[in-house]
Amino acid sequence: TEFHPNDKTKAASVTDNQVVIWDISSENAENTSNIALEGKNNPKFTTGKWNPHQNGNQFATATETHLKTYDIRTGSLAWNIDNVHNQLTRDMDFNLNKQYHIATCRDDGFVKIWDFRQTSAPVYSRTDHSHWVWCVRFNPCHDQLLLTASSDARVLLSSAASVSSENNEGVIHDDSSENQDSKQILSDGPLQWCEHEDSVYCAEWAPAE
């Protein structure tokens, strides 16, 4: 279940074959609409997330190897990306600072960033995990930073500077008071990681800047 990014009265629940839109303004939530998944071989949704752009009127879903995003006002398909990975898609996240960028991760170990205006190829693609990637999150303030969690027992902090909203020919400026004159060249790839003893299924950024 995902709460709407702007409207505190709305939430969406993802089940195997439908997305349920809820009105949660009262004590007893009301089901306001359903979006059904249809197709051959009984396809299933694996996850979903509100698009924080487009006035919050779109809900993106992952089904098998595809992304499908629906307009919740009509239930119709707004846009889709087929075959974003070769294996099951586990998670997705929208870039809050670039409205057409969405990150995806899958069982093939890849993390990709897509511009859904041009879907022939991802704008960023790396495979720094050795097993399934369960979770991907853009940093809400500095979108060149990606957080990923995997069944390889690692949480990775990675750089996607080449497609960041802060990218200026690869130069990322540090505006902190202690480093007013400094700047750092960031390339794509892992920056830090944390080892665990078993699979890591989720990772989240703190709300602090």
Describe the model.
- There is one protein chain.
- A 4-stranded antiparallel beta sheet has the order 1-2-3-4, with no helix packed on it. Strands 5-6-7-8 form a 4-stranded antiparallel beta sheet, with no helix packed on it.
- The two termini are 25 Å apart.
- The protein contains no helices and 18 strands.
- With 209 residues, it is mostly beta strands.
Name its key features:
mainly beta; 209 residues; four-stranded antiparallel sheet
Chart the SSEs and their pairings.
Elements: E1 2-3, E2 10-14, E3 18-23, E4 30-36, E5 45-50, E6 58-63, E7 66-71, E8 77-81, E9 89-94, E10 101-106, E11 111-115, E12 124-126, E13 133-138, E14 145-150, E15 154-159, E16 171-173, E17 183-185, E18 189-195
Antiparallel strand pairs: 1-2, 2-3, 3-4, 5-6, 6-7, 7-8, 9-10, 10-11, 11-12, 13-14, 14-15, 15-18, 16-17
Summarize the structure.
This protein is an all-beta fold and 209 residues long. The chain has strands at 2-3, 10-14, 18-23, 30-36, 45-50, 58-63, 66-71, 77-81, 89-94, 101-106, 111-115, 124-126, 133-138, 145-150, 154-159, 171-173, 183-185, 189-195.
